[in-house]
Amino acid sequence: MEKPNQPLDQFKTLIGQKLNKMPSMAGNWLGGTLLEIEKGSIKVSYTVTPAMSNPARILHGGVASLMMDDVIGMANFVAGSEYLMTSINLNVDFLSAAQVGEKLEVSAKLVRSGSNLNHWESVIIKDSGKLVAKASSNMIKTHIKLSELGF
């Protein structure tokens, strides 16, 4: 029998809600809405705002990267480690533009979970189904227990 996953259960209560009261201030600024979360996967929706855009009024690459990194971080938090894990890389491919006002869905899935390292893949897809960006990231276990941070 699998033991209870309190972080996952807590996140599930946020489905359908704006993620603006999270530990990540940058993630709060993004203002996403949690659509789905399970152990090893997540989906969050965002709307591109003027503050998220570059001078051409399209989604800034740094903001797209932040979206994927933050979504991966949330999903990794509920993946089951008792230790804080942090990104050691984020490899991003920008494949098409997203305009101000467009709705995006950012998803991430756990590809491989190891004793010290988790490998994730993430995508940003527009409402039209067009792929905006994709990323892969590795998260490494630190020596800091989540319980020491109050989680």
UniProtKB/TrEMBL annotation:
InterPro entries in the cross-refs: ACOT13 (IPR039298), HotDog_dom_sf (IPR029069), PAAI_dom (IPR003736), Thioestr_dom (IPR006683)
GO molecular function: fatty acyl-CoA hydrolase activity
Organism domain of life: Bacteria
The keyword Hydrolase is assigned to this record: yes
Gene3D superfamilies recorded: Hotdog Thioesterase
Residue ranges annotated for the Thioesterase domain, each copy included: 58-132
SUPFAM superfamilies listed in its UniProt record: Thioesterase/thiol ester dehydrase-isomerase
One Pfam family, short name: 4HBT
Keyword annotations: Hydrolase
CDD domains: PaaI_thioesterase
UniProt-listed PANTHER family: ACYL-COENZYME A THIOESTERASE 13, THIOESTERASE SUPERFAMILY MEMBER-RELATED
Family recorded in the similarity comment: Belongs to the thioesterase PaaI family.
Name listed for the protein in its UniProt record: Uncharacterized protein (TIGR00369 family)
